[in-house]
Amino acid sequence: MNIDELIAAAKTLSTPELSDALDYFSLPGVVYGIKPVTVDRAFVGTAWTVRYIPVDSHNPGSVGDFIDQVMPRDAVVIDNAGRTDCTVWGGILSQLAAHRGIAGTVIHGVCRDTAEARDANYPVYALGNFMRTGKDRVQVAETAGVINLGGTRVCHGDIIAADSDGVVVLDIRNAEKVILRAMETSRLENLITDDVLAGMSIKEARQKHHYHTLQRNPLIEEK
């Protein structure tokens, strides 16, 4: 699958389904502690990574000018080292991102101006929200590099999936097999649902479709 096909396929899946597929291949990718803080709207996009560091008082840098380089298919993914004392995303960025069709924003840190993001129907996922500006406190150290998102490695161009259950990162090198496995898991879980709604006991339906081992890869277990 090409990148457009991968994104289209991932949009049909939930983060729990993708998480189970990551487990199936014993792969990392589940992001801890980051939840929707503006609108509870799912999105999938390619990671456009940004890493912040504490401000250099002798040579302060910018805090958000990178947005001009982000494309509509992208998801802005920001590593602010998990800081919750100052923000790296606010109302101007949310409104501009929504206007440009950017997929969404994920922050290992906090955002502010959440009402403006909600008014723009723009999804921001973060550790929380807090009003204090990041100006003169942090600055951009690097864009389009490798970052840490809540303990999960994210490379520029990886696939980011976010919904009401959280955020999942798919390493672009493994994305296709993870998505295909998640689609199979989704298919089997739908069959279980159909069977129980038709009158079968949940125990029988789960046994029939091997529910309790869907996240286990027999090839890995044999090793």
What descriptive keywords fit this protein?
two-stranded parallel ribbon, alpha/beta, 223 residues, 7 helices, Glucose Oxidase, domain 1, single chain
Topology summary:
Layout: H1 3-10, H2 15-24, E1 30-31, E2 35-36, E3 43-54, E4 74-79, H3 91-100, E5 104-108, E6 110-111, H4 114-119, E7 124-126, E8 128-129, E9 138-143, E10 146-149, E11 152-155, E12 159-163, E13 166-170, H5 175-197, H6 202-208, H7 218-222
Parallel strand pairs: 3-4, 4-5, 5-7, 6-8
Antiparallel strand pairs: 1-13, 2-7, 3-9, 3-12, 10-11, 12-13
Radius of gyration: 19 Å
Put simply, the count of helices is 7
From the spread of the alpha carbons, the general shape counts as elongated
CATH fold group of the largest domain: Glucose Oxidase, domain 1
Let me know the largest β-sheet.
9 strands, mixed
What is the terminal separation in angstroms? Answer: 29 Å
CATH homolog superfamily of the largest domain: Ribonuclease E inhibitor RraA/RraA-like
Q: Helices and strands: which structural class?
A: alpha/beta
Overall pLDDT level:
94
- Outline the low-pLDDT stretches: none
The helix-strand sequence is HHEEEEHEEHEEEEEEEHHH
Strand content: 25-35%
Number of domains: 2
Would you count the extended β strands for me?
13
Based on the structure given, which CATH architecture of the largest domain is correct?
3-Layer(bba) Sandwich
What's the CATH first level of the largest domain?
Alpha Beta
- DSSP helix fraction: 25-40%
Cofactor: a divalent metal cation; Mg(2+)
InterPro entries: RraA/RraA-like, RraA/RraA-like_sf
Binding site for Mg(2+): 113
Protein name: Putative 4-hydroxy-4-methyl-2-oxoglutarate aldolase
